[in-house]
Amino acid sequence: LALVFAASNLLRDSGVPCMPAPPLGNRSVAGACSEITAFVANITPPLPDEVLLPLLNSVTDFTYKWSDDIVKLISEYVSLRADGGSLGATEQKLRNREFLLNFRFSEVVAGEGPWRAPLATAEYAISRDGADTDFEPAQQLRRLFRNLQIACLLSLFYFCGLRPSEVRSFLSKNELWRCGGGLASCLEVRFSTDGLLELFFVNGMVSKGRDAPTPEQWLVGCRPAGSTWLPPAVKALEVLEKLREPWRLELGDGPLVMFMSNPRGIALSAASLSHPSSSQLLRSCRLFIREEVNLAGLPDVSKAGEDLREYRRTKGATITPRHGRKSFSAFILESKGSAVEAVRRHFKHFNDAVTEAAYYAPIHRLRQHEKSEGYAASVQFFASVVRGKKVVGRMASLVHKYFSGDEWTTLSTTGEIHRKVESVIRLHRIRVFFSDHTNCLITARPLDSECRKADGVSKTGWLWDEPNTKVRTPSMCAGCGCNAMDISHLPFWEARATIPIVNSSNREDWVMAARVKQAKAVVKAIKDKLKEGCS
Question: Whole-model pTM?
Fold first, then answer.
């Protein structure tokens, strides 16, 4: 019990956001243990995929597709307001309003029209305090400014796992911005050791768990050398720099992230801009999610078994910037559990224990274990092919061709075969998906997957390397380009081949007759293959 309390204090002192450990006092050990359980359960979980993907889609739409229009409109509007000329106050107000109403947003995709309608004379929206109200054109522009800013910040939280305090420490330097070729002035660009990649590092300060703020760097993106594409976080930092442009001379060098502190409309001078507090960031993030992320269609439970009802009921009000750090680490560590050391360095933790305790929760390790079991079964399958197991199906020729070469025949022991097979499938990231009727090798040939094409919704490509269990059927798998069957599937197809057909002219029986015919062909193929040698 003392070790658990010590561990909780270590988490607190190392900068991981969590509740303080409950003191034991005069309570029983059982009571203290129940409080510890509540303490551990309170750690912020990563967002479910069903919530995270719509959020990130909205974020990237703002930063990549719509940011140019918003930046242009704000810059021109601030310049117009500053140039009052000989007009009176009322005339200036009418002119500025007319300018906003006449602005036309650009087409993101040619032929599909502007990405949004022009600003309206009054727009029904959600005000800062959560109440519904009608916004004037200037207020609508202010909302666009705020939402674009928040989209940039969410990009840094969710694509890089940065803390709000770390993002708030990023500085803008006018001289570096002018000569930086469009890159944010807080960035440094280096090349990988082989010269093939450009690496983007951002400079900031870490204060969590430190006696005083400490300068640090984070890797926030990379791209092939010579490419002009900007990674999401790098693009977000560029947009934040552009949003400062109308007030850059007045602001001088200073914090990159600046919120408008005037109660209404767009800030006319730098005096109406201020460095945001953590509470302002949280409130603005919640408004962005409520206005720009549609969670109304969420099911009750995610594919991973997570409860989604609260996200749907609150319209995302329970989502915080802190979820970004957890979602980022969960994606990395679920993809590759051995990356704990890399995540620790990126998060600036003192040791791996802190990272594992707060960012690699047992439920995610359990998922990783489930995947590792499938990985071990895949190794066993290919090792049995090396030892002579016969496989039929459209993948069979490739499997036999690859695993029967000279480099395999020289292996004498089972251990040698398993080690070599393991190295091959780890290198090529091949996994077999097992079922009663077939073995699916979609990871080796995803473009030929029939179940990924079947419903017209699922996409086919190298990123979609798991079978679509919603639509796939044994008949579909039997003719799929990812199919590889062996003797273990013979009982399924033999049972299917003996289904009685009452009336072959009836449509239902006609379909069943086609299935029986296919099953008999599969049974014959497997038995013919077995006659060639070892099973």
Answer: 0.64
